[in-house]
Structure formats: structure tokens, C-alpha cells
Write a structure and sequence with these properties.
The complex is a heterodimer of chains A (654) and B (361). Chain A is built from three helices and 37 strands. By secondary structure, chain A is an all-beta fold. Chain B is mainly β. In chain B, the strands form seven sheets. Chain B has a four-stranded antiparallel beta sheet. A four-stranded antiparallel beta sheet of chain B has the order 4-5-6-7, with no helix packed on it. In chain B, strands 8-9-10-11 form a four-stranded antiparallel beta sheet, with no helix packed on it. In chain B, 50% of the residues are buried. Chains A and B meet through strand 26 and strand 29 of A and helix 1 and helix 2 of B.
Chain lengths: 654, 361
């Protein structure tokens, strides 16, 4: 049982759902919280060790340790953090939260700063597809999948209740208390209540540079209007009806009130835009095993996302701008799978209904009905594995204007062929998929173009992995992977000026070509009573504009570094633990043209942490972020914080 | 490991990563300017702090991009919206940075940086400039026209015009200010405020009955005023309105698809866009007979196929030259194309993003 054989050391144990997990090398009904994917799958997994040992506050920061992922970070706790994977653009990555997608049909960007790490158990980044029979079709409809899994409690025989409470405090008035309460109500019903609150002034100092050259003017400034107040609460229920049937039910509420610090405009640092977010959803995952071959699962969700933007200093007749956007979603998936020792097949269908109501910019109140249907195949023969799926998409848009109706269909394949030899695996995959345009791209007043084609991506990937547990006297676990890929983006959706600067519209223009390499090496071992975990990643992305008529043909696309990487080191000794992280990003360009004026310099960010356990219940952590106090930017004119200190106390009770 | 060793180790590991990063040639060395050179104001892109003043040497046919930052050690700021030369100084309105930067015309050194903010600290967004009787006037998007004393280099007085002024010109002892209402899109303004000098009082407001969004405003050789009325880029077309600067009355309105214009002797030279063919052109006509007298200005029309987005026009009486800028796709390096007064191509050169105003050094 290759998959169960790899309990990640130092992290939480595997999930304890009662659903039996049928494991073959690649035919897996991976319950969504399964940590390890088959070796043939191009996947990177970051477990809770990183979160526990380092002061990493959001999923967006975890993503910096995944090769191939570029995080666009506007700085600070409240700063927007989106990811793009392997040069494909943000909207090509699906973000899943406990198995169900988090979607934004308005602009297609998921802000990962909103997913606090307080209850994140692990993050999985799957390129191409997740090898899982029981998954929603939505997960197959994106180029890549970023999966966030939350902590599920595990109860020993006599335990009835668990409490985990923490409080962090740090530089710039960062205050983050939270608790998680888990109760075994009955033998068949576990309920958890999760609460987490973040407040931060965010007024960090930075050095403003007024020129690119050595000796140019600088001034010491402080970020203003960068405050954040957010709270997240979740109520989860794990209900086991019988040995065959179980249900997970989640209720989620998120609220935030934040300043949107503007770019650091020379000579005028006045910033005053505000954003209020409210997100409430309920989701359920119901699973029923008919027998060892047949399984049925249902994923359902209802969600309301409301965003209020306010700018009190606009030189229009009103003197302000106040826009409210509300997105609603109803979602249901049914998936049915069959599996034997060598063969797995499943059929999965998603039905989604989305609406957007806006007080400004999108006047036509778009509504979208989508149906995604896929067949997934998995086949094992000797050491060969074959994984494939074929996805049928159907999107039907309605708006308050009759002529802006559209229906679009598509069929998209994914194919993967793997070979495993002992602890080694090789695989190749090919995926051809389309990203359907967002509501803004289609219907934004005057700019949107209702007849846009979807943006298409093609991915070719070669994957090699080696994973080994040496069962000698000393514990030693090696995990390495190497991916080489070639991606294409066709019919890229871009905003282009028409005739003059005042008339823009969305067009399918341009192509992108990406060739890249992702490397990961990780080692976990112990030397006497010292446990050691080291991980290094490196990515190379040659991601260029491939449109021959473009002014920037063959130049590296914006915000995509050629070179990037990370290092993670954790040392545990008795009740002490020390950690060190480095994240590196090579130079990038803020605009399409690769000229010095658009360049963002390379940076290395070092952080360290120290932890001590007191007795059975308490853990005290100290961390220093950006240890070398290095001033850098990820987004042009959005400085990242300098050195920061954090202290955290954690109390656990069983 | 002591602290020093640790820091060194970390710094070394940083350098290890850095070493594989090569650099573009930035060429910070000054160009040999010779006698004849041009300043080009490049607007840059909103939020990027990349407004620049580029210097082009006609004699050596070389450009120094962002000359201002090279000379001063700091950039112009965000969105260089307008530039005028007055006496020995250059004035640049940097709209999003909310400053007017005063520059020594001879060497490019900054003389003063005048903050354009109201009493509450809110930016006024300086937009267009003109000079008159020893003063420089700044039309600001907050609705006011500010008066800068060219000796003390301070804002001395201001007067309220209309919504989002985006054009200003001086004639007959009066300022004519075009109120665009651009930030109330699609509810544009359609008025011109007339301000009496030296009192700095609004004495009249001219309404353009058919047309919206007046912006670029220039003084004609006969002392009258010409205003570019943009329309709404949708169902109200652009036009050129001529105003009698004595009576403040509209003399005529020429319906031409114009997006920029300059005055050359007794002619108007304007950037024309044909909606049916989607073709750009530069046309010229006697300013009192535009609708009937328009002819192609550029002799070799093939020039337009080597351009992407003709953007603005400038003129130099002194050099008898017309400059057309090409904004390309608005995010890439732009270009300036120079013609003689007869429309013959003289030279062209690359600039920073969104070149708009060209003046002789």
C-alpha cells in the first residue's frame, strides 16, 4: 500500500473518516484529505509542519514554497495574494476548499490572503489533474488545481473533546487570536467550531526609492491605509450514518474590512480606498459505498459573496465612488465510481448556477448556468499506469439584455501515462483545456466583449519522482521530483485600447509559450534525538509572448520570474524546534516590455522561527520574518514589509 | 555560529541565487547633445511612477530616456500630463503625483516641485498648463485653476471653473478653460469657463450645445480660441469649436474626427481617425475653413503602417517642425515622428511609454 505507507512525519495524522480507502498505485478514491498522491502524479504537497513552525498566515504565503507557483503579493496581511502556475495566469488555477471549488465568476481571481492558516492542514498543488476518481468535474476544468484541506479532528477511544486555542501578536499591531473546539457528540457525529480573528494596523515602514540607480533619492515612509480586520468562523460536522455512508457538512462565514493601500505614488502617498468582503457558504460532501466496487458521492454548495468598494476622494460630481458587487452560487455535483484491482472508472457531473449583481460597471446582471460532465479512467497493468479523463463543458449565459445571451460547448481531454519501478516513477501528461471568460471580461460596461472565445491552454508535462523510506536503524525519508513542461496559451483574453486611450475592449489576442522546469527535493531524518527536515525547490519558467504581431514578441511575460526557489529547514530537538525559510524570486517585469524601467529586482526573503513546548499543552513560538530587513517588491510600487517579529502561544487540550 | 557568520551565510546564499540574473543595458551615460535637442514628456502608466522627460539629440540622433531622473536622481512621478516651456523654465503637470515640477530648461535640473493639494491634503490632479503675463496657470481636475507665480514658484491664487478641466488657453486677457467632466463618465460636461485676468474671476461660461467632453484648448493666431470637443467615444462624435475670445461666443463648430491638433501658421494640423476604414491620418486645413479645406498633411502615407497608435501632436515654430507621437499599445516604449512644415518626414526616435508633448530644449 504505497500511499498509506507515507505518513508525513511531524504532521497531523491521516484523516480518520470512516470511508474505507481503496488504494492501488494510482487508482485511488483519495478522500480529499489524503496527504500523499500517487508518485506518478505531478503534485506538490505542503503539510502543516510549515504552518506550525513558521509564522505563515495565509494560504497565499504557503504557495511561495511550491515550485512552479508565482505568488503575486501586494504586501502586508491585507494585500491581495493571487497565484499563477507555470506561466498560465491566475484564472487557470482552480482553488478548492475541502474538495469544493471556490470560484469568482466576476474576475476569476481568488485572493488567497483570505484563507488563514489557522485551520489549514495541508495544501496540494496538482498540475494537470488530481488522480482521484471521486472528484467534481470542476476540478478537471482548470489547468491546475490548488487544494486547501482543513484540519479534521481525530479522537482516541475515550476522548470526547479537544480544544486548540492560540493567540499571536506581532509587529504593526498584528493580533490574531483563534480557537478550535472539537466535540465527539456521539459515536457517529463529530462537530467542530472554528474561529479566527485577525487585526493589523499594517502601517509598516518601507524605503521609497525615487530612481533605479545607485545614489538616487530615497525617503523613509510608512504604509498607510493598510489596516485589516477579518474574522472567519466555521462549523463542521462529520456524520457517519453507517459503515457505508457518511456526510461532511460545513458552514462558513468570512468578514473583512480592509484598507486598499495604493501604489506608492511619488510625492503623493495619500491612500483612502476601502474594501469590505462578506462571504457565507454551506457545503456538504455525502459519500456512500455500495460495496467494494461501487461508490457514490455528492458535493453541494450554496454561497453568497458580497464585496463593497469605497473611495471617498474621487474628483467626480459626487466626490466619492461606492460600488457593491454580489455573487451568488448554487452548486451540485454527483459522482459515481467503479473500481476493481486494476481498473477505475467514474462519471462526474457538476451543475452550477451563478449570478452577479453590481451597482456599477456590470449593468447587465449576468447569470450563468454551467454543466460540466466528465468520465475518468484509471488503469494499472504491471508497472504501467494510465489515467485519463474527458470533460464536456456547457456554459449558458443570460443577461438582462436579450442580445447578450450565449451558449458554449467544449470537449477537453486529459491523458497521462506512467511507469513505476520500485521507488521511482515516470509519467507524462497532456491536457487541453479552456478557461471560460469571466463576467467582467464579457459584460463590463463598454469594455466587455460578449462574444469572446474562451482562453485555451495546452500542457505537456514530463514528471519524474523518487520517494523512499529507508527502513534502516535511522529514520530517513527522501522525496524528490523533477518536472519539465511545455505550456501554450492561445486566444489569450486581454484588454486592448481601441482607437484611443479612452476606448478599451476585451479581445482574444495573443499567445503565450512557457517552457519550464520544477524541482523539489526533501529529506526527513533523525540524528539521535534531533529530527531534521530539509526541503528545497527550484523553478525555471521561460514564459514568453508568442504572438508574432505583438510589440513584445518573445519577451518574458509580466510578473513571471525566470528563476525562483525556496528552502525550508526545520530542526526539532526534545521540546525545542527551530526553523528557517528562504524564498527567492528572480527579476521580473511589471509590464510586457523587458526593459530596465519595468524591471522588478530579484529578492531573497529569509525568515526564522523558534519554538518551545511547555508540558503537554503549551507551545510558545517566536518568529522573525524578513530577517535581513531587505526591501523588495513583488508588485511594482507595492513594497513588502521589512523585518517583523511575531510571538504566538498555543494551547492544546484533549 | 555567531551572528556575523550567520548573516554572511545568508547573504552568500542570496548571492548564489542572484548570480544567475543578468541585466539589461541601462546606459546611464549622458548623450552628447550638441546644439539641437528636444524634450519629450512621456506620460507613463497610471500607478507605475514612470512619467519621464526624455532628451533627444537631433545632431547625434540619440535618445536619453528618463533624462530628468538621470540629472536629478529622482523621477518625475506618476502620469506626466502636460508640459510647457515659459522663459528659461519648463513646467510639467504630474497628474497622479499631484505636483507641478519646474525644471531648468538648459540643464534639466529641477528648480521646484510645487505640491498641488487642497487644504485638506487631497490632491487636485493638475492636468493642463498655460502661461500668461508672468504667471503659469494650472487647470486641475478638482475644478480649480491655480495661478503659479513664476518668481516665487508658489500657488498664489485659485479660482473655481467647472468639472474636471482638461484644457486651458490664454487670449485677450482671458483664460479659456475646457470643463471635460471626464470623471463623471458617461455624464460628461460641455462647458468652457472664461476667466478674466488679472482679476482671476469667472466672467462667463460658454455652453457647447452639440458636443461633450471638451479638452485640448489652443489659441489661434488671430487671437481666437480653438477647443477639441471629444464627444463620448460612442454616439457623440468629436468636433473642433472656435470661440471668439472677445465676445466669448462660439464662431463655428467643425465636425471632424479629430483626437489632437496643433496650429501651424494659419493652418490647423490635426490627427484624424476614419471610423469606417479604421485608418489614422494627419490632415491640415486653414483654421477658418476646416470642413472644406482639409488635405492630407503627411506626404508619405506609408508612415502610418509603421505606427500603431498616433497619439498627440506638438509643433515647434522655431524649428518649423511638427511632432507626432505614437503611443503603441500604451504599455510599450513609444515613438516620436518628426515632419517639416510641409509634411515631409525628417526623423523619428524611440521614447519611453506614452510620449505626448515635445518641446525644443
Amino acid at each position: 500500500m504505497l500511499i498509506l505507507g507515507y505518513l508525513p512525519f511531524g504532521s497531523f495524522s491521516q484523516n480518520e473518516d470512516t470511508i474505507r480507502q481503496y488504494q492501488l498505485p494510482t487508482i485511488t478514491i483519495v478522500d480529499s484529505a489524503m496527504s500523499q498522491r500517487p508518485l506518478e502524479q505531478s503534485n506538490v504537497h505542503i503539510d502543516r509542519t510549515l504552518i506550525e513552525k513558521q509564522s505563515v498566515t495565509s494560504a497565499g504565503e504557503i504557495a511561495k514554497f511550491i515550485p512552479g507557483v508565482t505568488v503575486k503579493d501586494y504586501g502586508g496581511l491585507g494585500g491581495l495574494k493571487t497565484i499563477s502556475v507555470r506561466g498560465l495566469g491566475t484564472s487557470h488555477t482552480a482553488v478548492m476548499y475541502d474538495g469544493i471549488s471556490v470560484s469568482d465568476y466576476m474576475n476569476g481571481q481568488i485572493d488567497l490572503s483570505k484563507y488563514s492558516t489557522a485551520n489549514i492542514k495541508e495544501v496540494n498543488m496538482s498540475n494537470g489533474a488530481d488522480f482521484n476518481l471521486l472528484q467534481p468535474a470542476k476540478a478537471l476544468s482548470s489547468s491546475n488545481i490548488f487544494m486547501i484541506e482543513t484540519i479534521k479532528p481525530k479522537f482516541e477511544m475515550r476522548e470526547r473533546a479537544k480544544v486548540n486555542a492560540f493567540c499571536s501578536y506581532g509587529s504593526f499591531n498584528y493580533f490574531n487570536p483563534g480557537f478550535a473546539l472539537a466535540l465527539k457528540m456521539t459515536e457517529k457525529w463529530i462537530t467542530t467550531l472554528d474561529f479566527d480573528f485577525i487585526n493589523s494596523a499594517g502601517n509598516y515602514p518601507y524605503l521609497l526609492r525615487y530612481g533605479r540607480n545607485e545614489g538616487d533619492s530615497t525617503s523613509k515612509e510608512r504604509r498607510t491605509n493598510a489596516d485589516l480586520l477579518s474574522l472567519r468562523t466555521e462549523w463542521n460536522n462529520y456524520i457517519t450514518f453507517s459503515s457505508q455512508t457518511d456526510l461532511k457538512l460545513k458552514f462558513y462565514y468570512f468578514y473583512s474590512n480592509r484598507g486598499l493601500p495604493s501604489a506608492t505614488i511619488y510625492y503623493y502617498l495619500n491612500s483612502h480606498q476601502r474594501l469590505w468582503d462578506r462571504n457565507a457558504f454551506a457545503q456538504s460532501v455525502l459519500t456512500h459505498n455500495f460495496n467494494e466496487h461501487f461508490t457514490y458521492r455528492n458535493y453541494s454548495k450554496v454561497s453568497v459573496v458580497s464585496t463593497h468598494y469605497f473611495d471617498g476622494q474621487v474628483l467626480n460630481a459626487n466626490g466619492f465612488q461606492s460600488d457593491i458587487y454580489q455573487q451568488k452560487e448554487g452548486y451540485v455535483n454527483n459522482v459515481f465510481s467503479y473500481q476493481s484491482k486494476q481498473l477505475g472508472i467514474s462519471l462526474t457531473n457538476d451543475l452550477t448556477y451563478n449570478t452577479l449583481d453590481a451597482t456599477a460597471n456590470v449593468a447587465v446582471s449576468p447569470k450563468r448556468f454551467s454543466s460540466l460532465t466528465a468520465a475518468i479512467f484509471a488503469f494499472d497493468l504491471y508497472s504501467f499506469t494510465f489515467n485519463a479523463n474527458i470533460l464536456h463543458t456547457c456554459y449558458h449565459d443570460n443577461t438582462s439584455y436579450e442580445y447578450m445571451e450565449s451558449k458554449k460547448y467544449g470537449i477537453h481531454p486529459f491523458l497521462s501515462l506512467g511507469y513505476r519501478f520500485k521507488d521511482f516513477a515516470f509519467s507524462i501528461f497532456y491536457k487541453d483545456i479552456e478557461r471560460y471568460p469571466t463576467f467582467n471580461e464579457l459584460y463590463y460596461n463598454r469594455i466587455g466583449t460578449p462574444n469572446l472565445k474562451p482562453e485555451r491552454t495546452k500542457q505537456f508535462n514530463f514528471h519524474w519522482a523518487y520517494r523512499k523510506n529507508f527502513s534502516t536503524k535511522r529514520f530517513l525519508q527522501l522525496n524528490t521530483s523533477f518536472d519539465a513542461y511545455y505550456n501554450q496559451v492561445l486566444d489569450k483574453i486581454v484588454a486592448m485600447p481601441q482607437r484611443n486611450l479612452f476606448v478599451w475592449s476585451m479581445l482574444n489576442y495573443g499567445k503565450v509559450q512557457v517552457s519550464g522546469i520544477d524541482l523539489l527535493a526533501s529529506i526527513r531524518t533523525n540524528i539521535r534525538s534531533v529530527n531534521l527536515h530539509l526541503q528545497g525547490t527550484y523553478s525555471f519558467q521561460y514564459a514568453v509572448d508568442n504572438e508574432e504581431t505583438s510589440l513584445t514578441y518573445q519577451q518574458q511575460i509580466p510578473y513571471t520570474p525566470r528563476n525562483s526557489g525556496s528552502i525550508l529547514a526545520i530542526v526539532d530537538f526534545k521540546s525545542w524546534s527551530a526553523s528557517y525559510t528562504l524564498s527567492f524570486m528572480g527579476k521580473r517585469y511589471a509590464l510586457n516590455e523587458n526593459i530596465a524601467a519595468n524591471r522588478l529586482d530579484a529578492y531573497c526573503e529569509h525568515s526564522v522561527g523558534l519554538q518551545k513546548k511547555f508540558g503537554k499543552n503549551f507551545v510558545l513560538s517566536l518568529s522573525v520574518l524578513n530577517l535581513l530587513n531587505y526591501q523588495y517588491e513583488i508588485v511594482k510600487n507595492y513594497p513588502m514589509p521589512l523585518r517583523q517579529f511575531r510571538i504566538k502561544i498555543n494551547y492544546k487540550f484533549n | 555560529m555567531n551572528k556575523k557568520t550567520l548573516v554572511t551565510a545568508l547573504a552568500l546564499s542570496s548571492m548564489m541565487f542572484w548570480s544567475c540574473e543578468s541585466d539589461e543595458n541601462e546606459n546611464p551615460n549622458p548623450i552628447i547633445t550638441g546644439e539641437n535637442s528636444l524634450y519629450v514628456l512621456c506620460e507613463g502608466n497610471w500607478g507605475y511612477n514612470n512619467a519621464t522627460l526624455d532628451l533627444f539629440s537631433i545632431d547625434s540622433n540619440s535618445v536619453q530616456k528618463d533624462f530628468f531622473a538621470f540629472v536629478n536622481g529622482f523621477g518625475l512621478g506618476d502620469t506626466g500630463n502636460d508640459m510647457i516651456a515659459y522663459g528659461s523654465k519648463i513646467y510639467v503637470a504630474v497628474k497622479v503625483s499631484n505636483v507641478v515640477i519646474v525644471i531648468n530648461r538648459q540643464n534639466g535640473k529641477q528648480i521646484a516641485r510645487i505640491p498641488m493639494v487642497d487644504n485638506a491634503g487631497q490632491g487636485k490632479m493638475p492636468s493642463r498648463l498655460c502661461s500668461a503675463d508672468g504667471k503659469v496657470y494650472v487647470a486641475c481636475f478638482d475644478g480649480y485653476v491655480a495661478e503659479i507665480d513664476t518668481t516665487s514658484l508658489n500657488v498664489v491664487r485659485e479660482v473655481k471653473a467647472g468639472r474636471n478641466p482638461d484644457g486651458i488657453a490664454f487670449a485677450n486677457g482671458k483664460l479659456f478653460v475646457a470643463n471635460s467632466g471626464g470623471l463623471d463618465y458617461p455624464n460628461y460636461d460641455n462647458t468652457i469657463s472664461v476667466i478674466q485676468l488679472p482679476a482671476l474671476l469667472v466672467i462667463d461660461t460658454i455652453e457647447i450645445e452639440t458636443g461633450l467632453n471638451p479638452t485640448l484648448t489652443r489659441t489661434l493666431p488671430d487671437g481666437n480660441i480653438m477647443v477639441l470637443v471629444n464627444g463620448n467615444y460612442y454616439d457623440v462624435n468629436p468636433s473642433l469649436v472656435t470661440i471668439n475670445s472677445q465676445t466669448n461666443a462660439i464662431i463655428k463648430q467643425d465636425n471632424v474626427n479629430v483626437s489632437s491638433f496643433v496650429i501651424k501658421n494659419n493652418d490647423v494640423v490635426y490627427l484624424h481617425f476614419d471610423y469606417t476604414t479604421n485608418i489614422y491620418n494627419v490632415k491640415t486645413a486653414p483654421y477658418n475653413n476646416i470642413e472644406n479645406g482639409s488635405v492630407d498633411f503627411v506626404k508619405q502615407s506609408s508612415i502610418f503602417s509603421s505606427m500603431t497608435t498616433p497619439y498627440c501632436l506638438s509643433v515647434s515654430k522655431e524649428r518649423q517642425e511638427i511632432y507626432m507621437t505614437d503611443a503603441k499599445n500604451y504599455t510599450s516604449s513609444g515613438e516620436v515622428i518628426c515632419f517639416d512644415y510641409d509634411g515631409n518626414l525628417k526623423y523619428r526616435f524611440s521614447t519611453s511609454q506614452n510620449p505626448s508633448v515635445v518641446i525644443v530644449k
